[in-house]
Amino acid sequence: GNSVTQMEGPVTLSEEAFLTINCTYTATGYPSLFWYVQYPGEGLQLLLKATKADDKGSNKGFEATYRKETTSFHLEKGSVQVSDSAVYFCALSIGNAGNMLTFGGGTRLMVKP
Amino acid sequence: NAGVTQTPKFRILKIGQSMTLQCAQDMNHNYMYWYRQDPGMGLKLIYYSVGAGITDKGEVPNGYNVSRSTTEDFPLRLELAAPSQTSVYFCASSPPGTYLGEQYFGPGTRLTVT
């Protein structure tokens, strides 16, 4: 089956620190990969995506590269802000009927001023 | 566009009671989904629909029912509520075509069963 594994949180960083959140996956097909973000009290929002190997998704200073050889899609940001404090979810879709997503368990990021 | 809307925001149920969580989207999306999110956990798919009149079970469908009579609405019914159904419920929708996996989420309904 399909599965997504993320590093456990919480991750606590000081403002302007470098962020990496690890994500690895297993999939029966050729997946598209996603990072979703959930701010406190809100629903999930798509942060970035990549649909084929070596693609780099980017948005709001966050980046992630689709690495087929290591089945990974690690999220990075060069300089985090307090406003980046949220829960980050890695997810995959194999283009099945219904565009269903398989989510990782989420990683909480806390950024201190 | 309002996007995906959910009502109510919060609800407390007694064991054995029933209720319907409402979900609506105004983006003309074919696909809609219901998830539950337990504390500190990821999202688990309860039911999904690929269009009006078509629904299918997800990973954790027991204790729930859905219907999809229109493109816009996708209500989730809880029958005989149990403490194990205490969770935050998210509705989502997805456009048709090649938007593989890109979903739009509502703000959630926090349900407590006591």
Number of strands of chain B: 11
User: Unreliable stretches of chain A, pLDDT < 50, 5 or more residues?
Assistant: none
DSSP summary: helix tally of chain B? 0
Distance between the termini of chain A: 41 Å
Give the DSSP E fraction of chain B (strand runs of 2 or more residues): over 45%
Structure classification of chain A: mainly beta
Folded structure, characterized:
The complex is a heterodimer of chains A (113) and B (114). Chain A is built from no helices and twelve strands. Chain A has strands at 3-6, 11-14, 19-21, 23-26, 32-38, 44-50, 56-59, 62-65, 75-77, 86-93, 102-103, 107-112. Chain A is globular, with a radius of gyration of 14 Å. Chain A is an all-beta fold and 113 residues long. Chain B is mainly beta. Chain B is built from no helices and eleven strands. In chain B, strands 2, 4, 5, 6, 9, 10 and 11 form a seven-stranded mixed sheet that branches. In chain B, a hairpin with a 5-residue loop joins strand 4 (31-37) and strand 5 (43-51). The model of chain B has no long low-confidence stretch (mean pLDDT 92). Classes of the chains: A mainly beta (113), B mainly beta (114).
Write the layout of secondary structure elements.
The complex is a heterodimer of chains A (113) and B (114).
Chain A: E1 3-6, E2 11-14, E3 19-21, E4 23-26, E5 32-38, E6 44-50, E7 56-59, E8 62-65, E9 75-77, E10 86-93, E11 102-103, E12 107-112
Parallel strand pairs in A: 2-12
Antiparallel strand pairs in A: 1-4, 3-9, 5-6, 5-10, 7-8, 8-9, 10-11, 10-12
Chain B: E1 4-7, E2 10-13, E3 19-25, E4 31-37, E5 43-51, E6 54-57, E7 64-66, E8 76-78, E9 87-94, E10 104-105, E11 109-113
Parallel strand pairs in B: 2-11
Antiparallel strand pairs in B: 1-3, 3-8, 4-5, 4-9, 5-6, 7-8, 9-10, 9-11
